[in-house]
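tool_call: predict_structure(chain=1)
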Amino acid sequence: MKCDKKTAFAVLKGAVNILTAIVLGAVALLFVLLGLNYRGLEFIADYYTVLVWSAAALTFVVLALYVIFFLSNKQSLYRLLLCAIICADIFAVIFYIISATGLIQKITSIETLQSYIDGFGPTAVIIFIVFSFLQVVVLPVPGSVTVAAGVALFGPLECALYSFIGILAGSLVAFAIGRWIGYKAVCWIVGKDDIDKWLEKIKGKDYLILSLMFLLPLFPDDVLCFVAGLSSMTWPYFIIMIIITRLISCFTVAYSLDLIPFNTWWGIAIWIVIFALVALAFYLVCKYSDKIDAFIKKRFKIKGRTKK
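tool_result:
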């Protein structure tokens, strides 16, 4: 009798898990379709039918894989898919909101974003800071678009300051999400013992690599804030590092966009040289990473720790 009850409970639990995934997938698809229906971008208007069928097909494939992995007891795989479905829900809702409000048309180009922010008058500064914050946490907006609009509105100095305030706040929130939620999510997917063993192996080594990635303009530093939260990096080190790197990046981008144009041959030549120097710096740092890492640890008296 007890075995029958356990079996029935297991079947019911499995059915609830599968049904939950299907509902979450349907919600994501619904908001994507609603957002596409506004056809806010020329690309969406031109390929509306293809995008609709692609979204439906992708949803079906993901849910089918979830059911297969769940029934096959591939725990890590179906849990990873469930996390992906939840993330899809969040981005689908955001996509619907920015489509329904017409915001999607304004954040894809410098001119329209500039006009949109400028339309708020005296509160344009607050709107710009909020945009900079959301750019790190949720909005899939290239930082160059936001900064370029800010330079046109406020000038390079004020734009750099306002960008720094918003981006710094967003970076701290993203790190906190990675530290408090991301770790638990990864533990739920792959197991706490496995993730702790992995973090133990790399602890301390992530300081240099992540700091370098934040400093150089070759990496998605917004995403790296979440990754840093999963690493062994401590809060004090992250705060100091993010302040320094964000200050450098905000002021560099703001003034470079104002001084070095992309529409002249000499401006393009300067940008090529800059990226070449950045690539060289990255190569040298990677080559001498052990020595630099030891220097950083000695200077900041870092012992490293693993998130428990």
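agent: The chain is about 85% helix and 0% strand. Proceeding to next step.
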